[in-house]
Amino acid sequence: MAQVRAWITLEEVRTCFTMLPYFLIFPIWLLVAVAWPLVATCHALLQKGETQMKKLWLFYWASFVAVNYFMFFFEWLVAIPFFIIGWYIDIYYEVQLVGLIWLLLPHTFGIQMIYDYLMKNHDELLSLAQ
């Protein structure tokens, strides 16, 4: 007769609370962060006289490069809170995906909010940087 154990290990708990399998996260991230904005950028470039969307997608790609460059060197710093939370639930990559979806989803279009905020307050931000 098989013996039933009354406890589970921490690794089993962490496996249960991982939201997406790791082999799915990278393709989804590529679709959300690169393919979707690339299609939207091409669509904006084909629009005649629509300069606002062209500026917005240029801002997205410049921000994309800047954030990826920052993450190359400082991802360990950004990931520290997620290492602590990771003892209970592993959501680091899922939070990145949710952030990207918030930036790009037509209903929320967070990139537009960030762009508008930076354009409205660029004088104050530049004076703070100096």
UniProtKB/TrEMBL annotation:
Pfam hit, one: TB2_DP1_HVA22
Keyword Transmembrane helix: yes
Domain of life: Eukaryota
Membrane-crossing segments per the record: 20-46, 58-89, 95-115
UniProt entry keywords in alphabetical sequence: Membrane, Transmembrane, Transmembrane helix
Keyword match Transmembrane: yes
Family annotation (InterPro entries): TB2_DP1_HVA22 (IPR004345)
Name recorded for this polypeptide: Receptor expression-enhancing protein
Organism field: Noctiluca scintillans (Sea sparkle)
